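Internal QA ticket QA-208
Title: Verify multi-chain structure generation after dependency bump
Assignee: T.L.

Test input:
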Amino acid sequence: GAVVSQHPSRVICKSGTSVKIECRSLDFQATTMFWYRQFPKKSLMLMATSNEGSKATYEQGVEKDKFLINHASLTLSTLTVTSAHPEDSSFYICSARGGEARGEQYFGPGTRLTVT
Amino acid sequence: SQQGEEDPQALSIQEGENATMNCSYKTSINNLQWYRQNSGRGLVHLILIRSNEREKHSGRLRVTLDTSKKSSSLLITASRAADTASYFCATNPKIIFGKGTRLHILP
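Actual output:
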């Protein structure tokens, strides 16, 4: 199957700082990328959907000014957690889908964010 | 609200036995996908079944889909220790996951 990478895999930052997480589709063009966060032993929560070249669509309750998403190219989307707080500590996962809306989504390995 | 809900929440079986997990969803779908997640890791795509399909096989995996009941099942045959993981179902076009089934294979 297709490969999606995330970088970094693990990051520790101090409260008040910003952290950028990259999501790349390595062998296909991802017209749509999704960002999720997951709490321990919980389901994934969809945060936002981004289409290349347009603004991301955020789910209800997700602060767009706090979680900045940029989908600048067909192979790269970034999630920036601004002014991070300890409650932002979580496992963040991206997924990517090619041009077919009915097609498969491929998930990245996730990024473990710890805010101290 | 979550689109998919897995059942049971947890399942422990002996190695070699078959494991069956179920998923129910709420609205109409284009397809349904099953994923596996090992502890603290990302999701691995297992199988996709389209809304016009009723059954699909992939190796030791068998997935069924009943759109009239808005439900799907995942069967893992001849389970192995390496199958220990959490299993999630997700639906398109907007993939929303349930809480997953935590499968534990006993040696």
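Spot checks passed. The mean pLDDT of chain B is 89.
Status: verified.
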